[in-house]
């Protein structure tokens, strides 16, 4: 017993102060959103586009800064946040920024040029009244590789402790207010996912975590998968990454519950 | 020796040098080799002339560090190897499911992942022939007071899906049948014709918690096929990343095992420490799971001296915190009472069914690719093999703790003596008509990748055998005559991959 007590003293208090305090320090090599320096990008070579494993980079025609031009556009829902595009660019125009806040409410908001994605807004008032102070989630892995699962699960450890915000992963869909889905939705998991969603009492929400759950990720277009959660159920929150950093997931969950600002103002 | 091709880990040979034996000779060769102490590391089919099937077996001879390969052409049916060589059990089911051949006399011929048949080899699978997931004739125990418990595919925890069917007499499990396939994403099929821009990403997400392990096996294989050289510094960094992956997962497992017996201190501490180890991997490459770290030709990220210093500093803190958390387990009688004697697998059984990794070493078997078939940095720097012999949950936990300590020591030692070199060699393409086997000791055990190239150097066949493929049956065996309430504990003590199995 004494050893347990001494170990408790030695381990200390480890829960992050975020969002009331600063977020935990991200590694200096952290890979956030892909940014393209258009002053350096000649738009002719398209080497980044060819190197991209998931066709997340596309040429976009449109009006930028008052003049019509062509620019590369990135779909953060397809992006694996790998280094393939940056390594392929001969002009050094492609980099990753350090912003972990990438979550959106709409799929199309993840498609951006050089602006950050439109931040996720909170749930509608009536839904927020029901779920805002207590959100229980059933996690369903539908072809997920166990990385998104692990970095969602980690939010329940003492380092992050989402219980502070009334959030918890629960064992049964009957106990849940929504699903947190990972994986591209393998054909073999489609029925189980549908049944699990049906088993969650209404009103309910769905959160898609990771490139696979948003777009199919590297498995997009495979006959064995359904290219993401939205092919089966309506999705309320998109959290991009491969896998998303726990901080990205937490930021998204807090924004959905309208807590991101509320707490940081305290 | 018995007409088999001899080769070594990460060595490429001419594809036509793999001998084609008659079915009888092939059976004889595989059965004799396994009786002589070899292990069946991989067995897979690929299309041969005239709508027949070329079946290739890869055997590992641990004592002398060699691999053996042979193949045979199968047409429709053949006499199953499994009755004489139980290690072939899961492989023969897989081949039968994928290619429609029939291993006659196979005692348990059921789907392994309910995937559509692979024939015709190219193109999309025909939808009409799809088997329905989870619909199979589960083994049933009949009798008064016998009841059946079905669990999954969706489980209670935040884990991957799979189906477990228990036959119980009261609390006691008479038989457990494990039915997987829910995670099937078509990885092996998609690798054919490559390498493409996606190939590395398939490997990194094949089992996300084993990103470094599978990516290293893949890169080693491509480098063997193309005859390219990896800089020494890159080999060291690959080893560092692989051991960090092992430490992170083992620490997480010790915490989860503590949680499954209701011992919260170690659960809480190890849950947090595991994250700290993942953050070390993120220091290397920016991603907690090591995405982008291992690439064909070397590694994607170099280290500088400041980064090495910081990593060593954090590593020392992690080593101390982990020691305190893990030792609480061994010092607490209520934990030991639950660990000891739970889910015991005998050494004989482990040998017979071909267990790998910590699960095998916990049964007293000396099986470790790093020691017996070393590649990369492990040819020069040895990590002592960690073992125990009680074969129970305690042994599987304790082997992990031994491995954590040795891996942490290895990482410190290697980082202190990083060779000066570049970290990426200029890549070259795989040569045509080559055959190669690549093995890595991942944190779950032996990862085996086998590839064959066509005459233009594209991948004509790609076989992945995740350690889970060997070990799922071990979990089923471990549950016999155990209380069903110990299932979560036994399951966690193996902690196998669903997607690594389902591919």
Question: How would you portray this structure in words?
Answer:
The complex is a heterodimer of chains A (266) and B (503). By secondary structure, chain A is α/β, with parallel strands linked by helices. Chain A has two domains: 34-99, Alpha-Beta Plaits, CATH 3.30.70.3270; 125-265, Rossmann fold. Chain A is built from nine helices and ten strands. Chain A has helices spanning 2-11, 47-51, 84-88, 125-131, 147-153, 187-199, 210-215, 246-256, 259-265, and strands at residues 34-36, 57-64, 67-75, 94-96, 111-112, 135-141, 167-169, 178-182, 205-209, 237-239. Chain A has a five-stranded parallel sheet with strand order 7-6-8-9-10. In chain A, strands 2-3-5 form a three-stranded antiparallel sheet, with no helix packed on it. In chain A, strands 1-4 form a two-stranded antiparallel ribbon. In chain A, helix 5 (147-153) links the parallel strand 6 (135-141) and strand 7. Chain B is an alpha+beta fold and 503 residues long. Chain B has two domains: 5-112, NADH:ubiquinone oxidoreductase Nqo5 subunit (Beta Polymerase, domain 2); 187-502, Cytochrome-c3 Hydrogenase, chain B (Orthogonal Bundle). Chain B is 40% helix and 19% strand. Chain B is built from 16 helices and 17 strands. Chain B starts with a strand and ends with a helix. At the A-B interface, helix 1, strand 6, helix 5 and helix 6 of A face helix 4, helix 7, helix 8 and helix 16 of B.
Topology of helices and strands:
The complex is a heterodimer of chains A (266) and B (503).
Chain A: H1 2-11, E1 34-36, H2 47-51, E2 57-64, E3 67-75, H3 84-88, E4 94-96, E5 111-112, H4 125-131, E6 135-141, H5 147-153, E7 167-169, E8 178-182, H6 187-199, E9 205-209, H7 210-215, E10 237-239, H8 246-256, H9 259-265
Parallel strand pairs in A: 6-7, 6-8, 8-9, 9-10
Antiparallel strand pairs in A: 1-4, 2-3, 3-5
Chain B: E1 5-7, E2 11-14, E3 20-21, H1 23-35, E4 39-48, E5 52-61, E6 66-74, E7 77-79, H2 89-99, E8 102-104, E9 146-151, E10 163-169, E11 172-179, H3 187-191, H4 199-204, H5 211-226, H6 232-260, H7 264-285, E12 294-295, E13 298-299, H8 305-331, H9 333-339, H10 347-353, H11 357-361, H12 369-372, H13 393-416, E14 434-442, E15 445-453, E16 459-465, H14 467-478, E17 482-483, H15 487-494, H16 498-502
Parallel strand pairs in B: 3-6, 7-8
Antiparallel strand pairs in B: 1-6, 2-14, 4-5, 5-6, 9-10, 10-11, 11-17, 12-13, 14-15, 15-16
């Amino acid at each position: 017993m004494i050893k347990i007590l001494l170990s408790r003293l030695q381990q200390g208090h480890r829960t992050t102060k975020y969002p009331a305090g600063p977020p935990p320090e991200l590694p200096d090599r952290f890979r956030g959103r892909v940014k393209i320096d258009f002053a350096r990008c000649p738009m002719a070579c398209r080497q980044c586009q060819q190197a991209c494993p998931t066709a997340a980079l596309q040429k976009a025609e449109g009006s930028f800064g008052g003049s019509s031009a062509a620019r590369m556009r990135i779909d953060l829902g397809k992006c694996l946040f790998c280094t393939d595009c940056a390594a392929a660019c001969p002009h050094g125009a492609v980099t990753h920024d350090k912003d972990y806040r990438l979550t959106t409410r709409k799929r199309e908001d993840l498609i951006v040029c050089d602006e950050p994605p439109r931040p996720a807004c909170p749930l509608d008032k009536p839904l927020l009244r029901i779920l805002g102070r207590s959100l229980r989630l059933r996690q369903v892995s539908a072809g997920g590789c166990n990385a998104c699962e692990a970095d969602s699960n980690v939010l329940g450890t003492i380092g992050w402790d989402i219980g502070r915000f009334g959030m918890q992963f629960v064992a049964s869909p009957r106990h849940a207010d929504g699903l947190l889905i990972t994986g591209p939705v393998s054909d073999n998991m489609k029925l189980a996912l549908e049944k699990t969603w049906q088993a969650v009492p209404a009103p309910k929400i769905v959160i898609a975590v990771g490139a696979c759950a948003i777009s199919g990720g590297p498995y997009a277009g495979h006959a064995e998968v359904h290219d993401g959660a939205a092919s089966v159920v309506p999705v309320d929150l998109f959290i991009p990454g491969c896998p998303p950093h726990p901080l990205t997931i937490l930021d998204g969950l807090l924004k959905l519950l309208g807590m991101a600002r509320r707490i940081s103002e305290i | 020796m018995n007409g088999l091709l001899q080769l070594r880990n990460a060595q490429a040979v001419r594809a036509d040098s793999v001998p084609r034996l008659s079915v009888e000779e092939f059976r004889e060769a595989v059965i004799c080799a396994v009786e002589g102490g070899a292990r069946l590391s991989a067995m897979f089919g690929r299309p041969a002339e005239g709508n027949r099937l070329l079946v290739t077996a890869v055997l590992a001879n641990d004592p002398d560090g060699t691999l053996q390969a042979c193949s045979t052409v199968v047409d429709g049916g053949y006499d199953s190897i499994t009755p004489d060589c139980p290690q072939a059990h899961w492989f023969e089911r897989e081949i039968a499911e994928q290619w429609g051949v029939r291993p006659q006399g196979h005692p348990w011929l059921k789907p392994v992942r309910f995937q559509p048949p692979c024939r015709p080899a190219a193109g999309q699978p025909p939808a009409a022939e799809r088997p329905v997931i989870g619909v199979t004739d589960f083994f049933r125990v009949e009798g008064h007071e016998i009841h059946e418990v079905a669990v999954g595919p969706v489980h209670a925890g935040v884990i991957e899906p799979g189906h477990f069917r228990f036959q119980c007499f009261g609390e006691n499990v008479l038989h457990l049948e494990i039915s997987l396939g829910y995670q099937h994403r078509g990885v092996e099929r998609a690798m054919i014709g490559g390498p493409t821009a996606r190939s590395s990403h398939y490997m990194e997400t094949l089992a996300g918690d084993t990103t470094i392990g599978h990516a290293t096996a893949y890169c080693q294989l491509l480098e063997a096929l193309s005859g390219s050289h990896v800089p020494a510094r890159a080999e060291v960094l690959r080893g560092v990343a692989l051991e960090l992956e092992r430490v992170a997962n083992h620490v997480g497992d010790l915490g989860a095992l503590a949680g499954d017996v209701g011992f919260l201190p170690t659960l809480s501490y190890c849950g947090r420490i595991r994250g700290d180890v993942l953050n070390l991997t993120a220091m290397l490459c920016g991603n907690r799971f090591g995405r982008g770290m291992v690439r064909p030709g070397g590694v994607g990220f170099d280290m500088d001296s400041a980064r090495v210093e910081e990593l060593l500093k954090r590593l020392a803190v992690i080593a101390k915190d982990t020691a305190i958390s893990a030792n609480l387990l061994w010092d607490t009688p209520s934990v030991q009472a639950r660990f000891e004697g739970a889910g015991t697998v005998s050494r004989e059984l482990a040998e017979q069914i071909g267990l790998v990794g910590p699960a095998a070493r916990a049964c007293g078997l000396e099986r470790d690719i790093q020691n017996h078939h070393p590649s990369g940095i492990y040819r020069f720097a040895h990590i002592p093999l960690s073992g125990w012999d009680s074969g129970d949950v305690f042994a599987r936990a304790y082997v992990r703790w031994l491995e954590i300590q040795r891996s942490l020591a290895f990482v410190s030692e290697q980082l202190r003596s990083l060779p000066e070199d570049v970290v990426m060699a200029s890549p070259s393409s795989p040569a045509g008509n080559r055959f190669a086997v690549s093995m890595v000791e991942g944190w779950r055990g032996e990862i085996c990748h086998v590839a064959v190239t066509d005459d233009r150097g594209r991948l004509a066949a790609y076989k992945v055998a995740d350690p889970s493929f060997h070990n799922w049956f071990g979990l089923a065996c471990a549950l016999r005559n155990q209380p069903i309430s110990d299932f979560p504990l036994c399951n966690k003590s193996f902690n196998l991959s669903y997607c690594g199995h389902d591919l």
